[in-house]
Here is the input.
Amino acid sequence: MAALNTAIGETAAGDARAELAALDAMNSVLGVFERNEALASAANDDLAAKVEVLLERRKNARVAKDRPESDRVRDELTALGVRIKDGPQGTTWERAV
Here is the structure.
């Protein structure tokens, strides 16, 4: 565990993706953490459904020019770890982690 802590500590500060990748690589060798792909998939599906509902609410608020509501929904998405991008083709999203 000390080596794990050292390896993670050496990862660039704020680079969560690199830290997760390092942890996943170490776990593939050590087998410390059990992965439940079905549970992870269900959690991703739940998040995607919630994000789609929130994006629709935000879109409706923007059409109604209700900036406070649009900003509130954006903040809610950010709190869920979701980054949104508005573009000519509409709004897209990705996990911020």
